Amino acid sequence: MDEGKAYPMNDGTNQGFGMPTPPQAAGQPQGAGQAQAADRPQNGQPQTAGQPASFQPQAFQPYQQPGYAQPQAAPAAGFAAPVAPAAQVAAAPAKQSHSGLIALGIVAAAIVLIFGIGAASCSAAIGSLSSIGSAGDASSLSTYGDSVAVITMSGTIGYDGSACSPEGLRAALKSVEADDDIKAVVLRVNSGGGTSTAGEEMSQLIAGFDKPIVVSSASINCSAAYEISSQADYIYVNHSTAIGAIGTIMQTYDASELLDKLGIKVNSIASAESKDSSYGTRPLTDEEREYYQNLVSQINAQFVSSVASGRGMSVAQVQELATGMEFTGDDAVANGLADEIGTYDDALAKAAELGGIKGDFDVVDADPSRSDLASLLGISGSTKVSISADDLAAALAKLDEAHTVR
Q1: Pick the residue with more confidence: 26 or 368?
Q2: Options 128, 216, 223, 306, the catalytic residue
Q3: 275 catalytically annotated
Q4: pLDDT greater than 90 at residue 218
């Protein structure tokens, strides 16, 4: 093969190397490769490294004729193709607008649904709106006729604002008292006791309430919780309920020996010798122990007296039971601390009976910690499955009156 000649090589690329060599026109200057091929047979010498002209890309520039430049129009047209995606991007806002209409429709449907529910529980909405305030404010409840309110007292008796505190219980009872449809209350108790002072306050609230109160004891009803329960009109327990534990306790500790072993010395600067008696840095003196014992006995005497008054028993009878120990439900019924073995439903029925309700009745959640949303959608707070036309008309009248007042 003569290396000086340009043989056609078609690799499918439509470039200078792959195209057939076009015929030379007369008088047209020869390419560098052709001139070298003509010289090579004459001198018989191979081309040196200093003469690489036949391998330079410009050697094939003469083949870039106008006729071979025409295929470039196709790529140029191809570059214009991305215009279509650009048009699609420009049209995107229309899709977003369509999606927005769908979302708006969904929101509108949700609003209609909410108003549909509100039509069935409009008085619950009034209760929700009027209940915004402090725990001491009375709030209206969702009632559609004769009802029994339920107050759930679950947890430690103290001052946390819930139904386990004087503030929360007071708010719940005020709500019940303000609603003429509510004829009685079930106090659902599941508490082991707590602060004696809070228990004393709450027992007085129960004792001074005009509407009947029935206690439904869950797993435990002890100590301060029982002092509160003892003021109710009727007490139900389960067979296995732990109830009673009438007694009062105060604890101090003595860590002085531990502090000595650790090499820690506590210097107490107090206005009186016994001011640090309950700090645990030294043992109690005999006088201090006697003082604290008298304090506990005095508080416990009030506890026993409260239970005796609430249960219609003598102080001596209650004092005999005030061992600090709990009783089972069966034993409590036998010794007079409870009235009957019964369930939560039994307590509801008894409350309705004591409240003078004949026939069906609603059950209303009067827990002060219930959420405003639960009150707004307070259908779940009532056991009535359907609402009569009269009830709905009365509820709508209440709603209209509320808006007029505002």
Answers
A1: 368
A2: 223
A3: yes
A4: yes
